[in-house]
Amino acid sequence: MEYLKNPMGIEEKSFEIIGNEMGPHSFTEEELLIVKRTIHTTADFEYRDLVEISETAIETGKNLFKNGTMIYTDTNMALNGINKIALDKTNSKVICYVNEEIVHKEAREKNITRSMAAVEKACSDNVDIFVFGNAPTALFRLKELIKEGKANPKLIIAVPVGFVGAAESKENMDQLDIPYIRVKGRKGGSTVAAAIINALMYMVVER
Amino acid sequence: MEYLKNPMGIEEKSFEIIGNEMGPHSFTEEELLIVKRTIHTTADFEYRDLVEISETAIETGKNLFKNGTMIYTDTNMALNGINKIALDKTNSKVICYVNEEIVHKEAREKNITRSMAAVEKACSDNVDIFVFGNAPTALFRLKELIKEGKANPKLIIAVPVGFVGAAESKENMDQLDIPYIRVKGRKGGSTVAAAIINALMYMVVER
C-alpha cells in the first residue's frame, strides 16, 4: 500500500489541509501558527473558536525563547510532548515535579492534587512560563499565588481539559495582567499544551 | 476561592457529568468505561460516536492484563499517559523505541518515520498490545507485517490522530482478525490511546 512516510512531508500536508478547511478567521499569521497546531494535534476544528491569545503573548513567548527560558508543566505528558531538540536550540528547560517524593508527600498531607503541590514548588524556582494541560487545581493555585504576590510568571498557557473546574480555571485570565494563551471552555489537554509551546519555539528556531 | 481538590473526587464527578450529558447509547457497561474515559481526556462528546470496540477486545485486554502483558506505544507521550501504578499491579510493561539510536538510524536510512522503524523492532520482541495514538505510518506498517505473517499482535489500539493517513490507517481493522479498539476518522491522539489502556487496566486492578 502506498502512504506518505516522510515526517516533515506529513506535517506540511496536514497544515495545508487544515488551512483549506478551517474557514474564515481573523488571526494574524503567527496566531494562525498556534491555532493550526492545536487543530493538528486534535483533528478538532472547534479549536479555531476556542483558542484565545492575549495581545502580547506571542511577542513575550518569542522573546523568552530567544533568550533561553524555564518552563513548568502540570503533567509529564505535556512535558513529554515538548520538542526537546527545539528546546535545546532555545537554551530552554522544562520541569514537572509531580513525580517527586516531596511533592507526593505534600499533596497527601494537605489532601490536594500533586500538580497543585508542584506549582507551589515551581513558584520558588525561576520559572517563566507556566503550562497547564490537565490540572485546573494547579492553575487555580497559581492564580492565588499571583494575587498573594508570591508568583510572577511571564507567560501562562492555560489549557486544562475536563469537566470539573477546567472551564472555570481558565476564566478571568485577562484580570491577571500577565500574557496568556488559553482554550476557552472544557477542551484542551496535554497534547494541546505541548503543541502551543512547540508553535512558539518554532517561531524562533529552525527545525 | 473554593474548588474541588481531591483527585479521585474530581474524576468521579467528571464521569458522572459525562454520563448525564452523553445522551443515548447502546454500549455495554464495560464498553462505556472506555468510551467515557476517552471523553474525559478530550472533553469531546463526539467520541461517543467514534469509538469502536471489536467483539472480543475487552475480554482479550482483561485477560492480557490479568496475566501480565507487554505493550508497544508509537510515542513516548502515549507511554507517559499510561498509569504506571496500574501497570505494575498487572505485572505489565510498556515500551516505545522511538528515542533509541538504532531506530533513528533505521528511519534516516530508509526515509521512514521513527515510529515505523520502532514497530518493526517491536514485532521481533514479545509485544502483545500495539498502541497507536499518533503515527498512521506505524499502524500501516504493522498491518503490512501482519499480512506478511511477521507479526501476530493480540490486541490493537488504533487511534492515530491527524489529517494525512490517520483515518485511512484505521480502516478495515475488522479484516485483520485481531481484537481491536479504534477511533474512526481523523480524531484520536496520545491522550486517547493512554485513556483506553488505563480503562482496560482499571477493569482488572483496584486503584
Automatic annotation (TrEMBL), chains A, B:
EC numbers: 5.4.1.-
SUPFAM superfamilies membership: Precorrin-8X methylmutase CbiC/CobH (SSF63965)
GO terms assigned for molecular function: precorrin-8X methylmutase activity
GO biological process, one term: cobalamin biosynthetic process
Annotated signal sequence range: none
Protein family per UniProt: Belongs to the CobH/CbiC family.
Domain Cobalamin biosynthesis precorrin-8X methylmutase CobH/CbiC, first and last residues per copy: 10-203
The protein's enzyme class: isomerase
Pathway connected to this protein: Cofactor biosynthesis; adenosylcobalamin biosynthesis
Superkingdom field: Bacteria
Organism placement in taxonomy: Bacteria, Bacillati, Bacillota, Clostridia, Eubacteriales
Database matches in Pfam families: CbiC
Keyword entries, A-Z: Cobalamin biosynthesis, Isomerase
Alphabetical list of PANTHER family matching this protein: COBALT-PRECORRIN-8 METHYLMUTASE
Keyword Ribonucleoprotein: no
Protein name (Swiss-Prot/TrEMBL): Cobalt-precorrin-8X methylmutase
